[in-house]
């Protein structure tokens, strides 16, 4: 006679083994606030922002909470590198990451900002409620006048194309191109009708994707815009992200997740029913973030992984003794030899407890730090240099 307990155990093992391979999993985060945007510079380094000024940063395989800089809701984050980034939110809030920490940045508006995008360190766009459009040049933000009455939910500032999309109930807002040199202006490129476009992704100027209300997906192939027929009932899609022409993801209400491959779009089971607000792809991992502190991720097959730009290296820092009491020696990685850089130490709240700049580091050198005045706990050490970032952990007991 077959043992039902044995049979059930076998089935459970089979199901769990299948779930562990290529399925969406929940990542542990120390917050329950709604999370609105995610961006990464490599598989182990990135930021998530959300309501009430929530900011999380990824340290190796762990998401940690950063100290609150503002109480405003943060809606979008854009990272140019491991040492340069921006985030925007309600009441015109703009914060900048300088490689060591986040700081308030002057804003020319009090309107809510929904999206921020940079094509390089000196040129960026932000957009928001009631047609708000900001341009970053020469170290300052300025507002661009336009006649748009609806919300501009998303912008994409690429080297060859700058675009904006939006919408408002019972109001049609076109897909727009930002043209002109000194006096920028919005030019209509496509009329989506009364569809609110929530998100935009531009892998290149001949391959553009936009998503929005009623599960709508629009695509531009270099000559014409068309609506993509998904063949299934899909809720409103809040975010679309393409790492390249063949790897894409869209997420939205009720835990909706769609992924794109050369075979087209496919709907996936995320095992969540919360509203998902943003998504990203880096290397072998897909990410999505949403309400109630939701962060989910999925590993993909290595032969399907997205090629990444490794112009920025992420190095590991070793230190001893670890755990430490009165002093710590940080070993400078060889890759940082003869480079300028900044060494900083922060606690788990993101507060910088030590920082020092150098014009020339020595690879292999042990750099001593007095830790006698630090409280017990886990600390993070970072060394930032142009194009290279190094990090590690140590414990004070």
Furnish the topology, listing elements before pairings.
Layout: H1 4-20, E1 25-26, E2 35-42, E3 45-50, E4 55-59, E5 62-65, E6 74-81, E7 84-89, E8 94-97, E9 102-104, E10 113-120, E11 123-128, E12 133-137, E13 140-143, E14 151-157, E15 162-167, E16 175-179, E17 185-190, E18 197-204, E19 207-212, E20 217-220, E21 225-227, E22 237-244, E23 247-252, E24 257-261, E25 264-268, E26 276-282, E27 285-290, E28 294-299, E29 313-316, E30 318-320, E31 327-331, E32 341-347, E33 352-358, E34 366-370, E35 377-385, E36 388-396
Parallel strand pairs: 29-36
Antiparallel strand pairs: 1-28, 2-3, 3-4, 4-5, 6-7, 7-8, 8-9, 10-11, 11-12, 12-13, 14-15, 15-16, 16-17, 18-19, 19-20, 20-21, 22-23, 23-24, 24-25, 26-27, 27-28, 30-31, 31-34, 32-33, 32-35, 35-36
Structure write-up:
This protein has 397 residues and is mostly beta strands. It has 2 domains: 280 residues, YVTN repeat-like/Quinoprotein amine dehydrogenase (Methylamine Dehydrogenase, Chain H), CATH 2.130.10.10; 84 residues, Immunoglobulin-like (Sandwich), CATH 2.60.40.3080. Helix content is 4%, strand content 52%. The chain contains 1 helix and 36 strands. The strands form 9 sheets. It has a 5-stranded mixed sheet, with no helix packed on it. A 4-stranded antiparallel sheet has the order 1-28-27-26, with no helix packed on it. Strand 3 and strand 4 form a beta hairpin. The longest helix is centred in the first third of the chain and has 17 residues. The termini are far apart. The relative contact order is 0.11. The N terminus is likely disordered.
